[in-house]
Design brief:
90% helix
Length: 134
């Protein structure tokens, strides 16, 4: 039972929450004041993936595996930045971060439709949905 609490502490509270708070809540907010949001999300994404680089190297991953993890990490970082922009909630980002990192990419698959639906709501609002029903 103790190992479950340690797993939740280490991966959800320590890793996911701390990373989301620092990278998306602090760095992204500050960079977005100076640069365009997309550029800021790329910069924060690079910082975020390079934080993970030593773990890939020390685990003995092949160069192509490291490249793949860095590329997918960058994409995840940009998506998490957009989640922060859409929801303005570090706790929602923390849950998606935890899901994407520790549950075989399930969170990544859920994240795309959530972003699409939220963008659809912001772009079209209820007026577009009413027009489609008529």
């Amino acid at each position: 039972m103790g190992s479950i609490f340690y797993y939740v502490y280490r991966n959800l509270i320590f890793a996911a929450f701390v990373e989301e708070f620092i990278f998306r809540n602090c760095y992204l907010k500050e960079l977005s004041k100076k640069y365009a949001f997309f550029l800021s999300s790329i910069i924060v994404g690079f910082l975020w993936i390079f934080l993970h680089l030593p773990s890939y190297i020390f685990q003995g991953f092949a160069i192509m595996d490291i490249f793949f993890y860095l590329l997918t990490g960058m994409i995840k970082g940009i998506l998490l930045a957009y989640m922060m922009k859409l929801f303005h909630n570090v706790f929602i980002n923390t849950l998606f971060h935890f899901n994407m990192g520790y549950t075989s990419e399930i969170g990544f698959l859920i994240l795309l439709p959530v972003i699409f639906l939220k963008l659809n709501e912001k772009v079209f609002g209820n007026k577009k949905q009413e027009t489609l029903l008529k």
